[in-house]
């Protein structure tokens, strides 16, 4: 286990140093471990005799090479060329005419990042080749065309980026993609999923948003398995929906399929951070199966319709005790649309009634949701709700606050007439209302 | 099953009409049902021959009386006077010297409301007697002194009301209460629980906040069982904490005990709407047992300390894609303290860095939490976090956004020096940080 030292001509390290990434290897260490997998690019650990190997399980390990370790080159022996050779070839060139292919739109985020060991932080990968080097199995079942759209952490994406993405998805289907995968940072992934759900109609195949809670070069990364699942779903599912695929639990072999309008990031770090709210996920999948909990929207025939119009001057305000009406009013100034995340069944303190009434009178479409996240708003149970309703507030059933915000941007892109916007808001467009009758226990 | 009709002198209805509320009765209906319980005040259904009976299970039923039904007065027969007679006597008068008693502070909300059948809405009960009439078993195990503090839906409570409540709790312990129950609307119950957690120190007994998702006159009300559990915990638990007791599931016989700083209303309507975030609840209880998942803070000796000071000009802002920096800045104007509910590990778009930096420079204590609700913020993983940290933002580990807001009000009531406030914010005062080392799966 020597850490450094002069090169030893016949030890495994010298061979490994020169070996192209993507080769399938096996290392038998002098102390009895056996590591088998694909060689991936090293971290900033040069000189430390460490190689990174992507195991068949999808995990990466860093193995420190001892002069006594033994190396076998498995793909030379079997003559199959390995998977990793793909990593440096432009993927588009490998698409044969007529063969179904998946479009992978890369936007940045952890799924396309790596740990920078100098800062301890995470930085985006440099190019498509580096991205693919982390995902050597991506094209195991068929071609994937990678298009880098952004290279940004998702907290820095804005509604205009949703418009760009919608157009890119439309273009991919226009070029014949069987399905589209969007690799995305997890911070605002659910917002983008909701936006694409409203902007894209008549989808001829799945649009699968996917992210990672840990960068793909980390041993515990969920990026590899998530992305493989997303690509498989995009290639095979006969659905016409925008969905989110992420770990269903801490286990690496089961993935939840969330409807794009019903999902929320509910944990800062866990791999199963994404949860469908107010009901089960749309479905789940493992290596062998795709199971639908509720029927997905089937794939449409004919071309996709992209309507990327979005309004502006829309706000989302979470209410809380002690929020002064003046502050809430300052926040709401000049808004064309305002989503309130009220308490309980969709309540505000009565101190807010005056400015809400005034805002509605000035034409601000004002929509009530619940900060509980689960359950539905209802203006008819308490006096507070009835007063807000009389003030002109629109009660949005069980729309999630974030989805209501995205939908209001979308609706205001289509009409500036508050009544038309209200009608659009209450019409189910993309499964954003669960529509299930509440059981007694829920009432 | 005649719906109306002239009085039939010798049928059960005539007797029932004249019977005082609180009597223990049994009705054997002509079609073979048997209802046994305590007579409670009727709804606005007079003339329809319907009586309301609170069953031993805690549920209310409305029974339509047929002339052929048979009535038995159980408390006359057994001579024990029933439970319900308590309802109209002032409860304080029944406290014998030296007998342990529980203080019940009533603030309004569903737990102290009833359905108004004219409007279909819910209205607060009129007085203590009406409240107790819904809870005839309240004093089964010992005296309860009821003090109406407010009669308000909790969405209309504000931080100054938390101050009043803190003083009332202090007064009750000062007068010798064994424990204190606060009956509270559920909308902002978690905010109040957090506030009392910080304002009250050296608690000699439990402070138990309790609410109901359905008013106590409804057959499916959870108010009766919740309140009974809360009173029992307040009377018996040797703890010195502020906790929330609500249904643990849809079942009526198990109650979760939540730490006041770790709980959130997570469903608009379900009886088990309250959930501890980022870990298990503090404990649970059923009719026979109290079980602690983690050790509660033991009851203190010596008098309770009430420090009801709260700062002002504190805001809570949830971030989202498309929030304009100008709007966020307008919201944050003149704030002494600002809690941000950022995305993921505690991020904002970089478009907000300038005004955040300026606000911090002007002395606004700016605290970052995560809108995921679960997991902890961490500024060291991504460039965004490191920039926010450099801008002077305080990362608040796994404080819930709402708890952070309440705590910042509290901290600014104690100091106006941003460094002192920051130190107070990061010090565990009332179990507000879970403090558990994150397991690999969580990282």
List unreliable stretches of 5+ residues of chain A: 1-9, 77-94, 437-443
Q: Return the domain count of chain A.
A: 3
Helix content of chain A: 10-25%
Order of the strands making up the biggest sheet of chain A: 9-6-10-12-13-14-17-18
Quaternary arrangement of the chains shown?
A: homodimer
Principal-axes geometry of chain A comes out as: elongated
CATH topology of the largest domain in chain A: Rossmann fold
Structural key phrases:
homodimer, 443 residues, alpha/beta, SH3 type barrels, 3 domains, 11 helices, 24% helix, disordered N terminus
How would you describe this protein?
Two copies of one chain form a homodimer. Chain A folds into three domains: 12-78, SH3 type barrels; 88-306, Rossmann fold (3-Layer(aba) Sandwich), CATH 3.40.50; 314-426, 3-Layer(aba) Sandwich (Rossmann fold). The longest helix of chain A is centred in the middle third of the chain and has 16 residues, at 159-174. Helix content of chain A is 24%, strand content 22%. In chain A, strand 21 (337-342), helix 8 (353-361) and strand 22 (365-370) form a beta-alpha-beta unit. In chain A, 55% of the residues are buried. In chain A, the strands form six sheets. Chain A has an eight-stranded mixed sheet with strand order 9-6-10-12-13-14-17-18, with helices on both faces. Chain A has a five-stranded antiparallel sheet with strand order 4-3-2-1-5. In chain A, strands 20-21-22-23 form a four-stranded parallel sheet, sandwiched between helices. By secondary structure, the first copy, chain A, is α/β, with parallel strands linked by helices. The N and C termini of chain A lie far apart (64 Å). Chain A has eleven helices and 23 strands. Chains A and B meet through strand 20, helix 7, helix 9 and helix 10 of A and strand 20, helix 7, helix 9 and helix 10 of B.
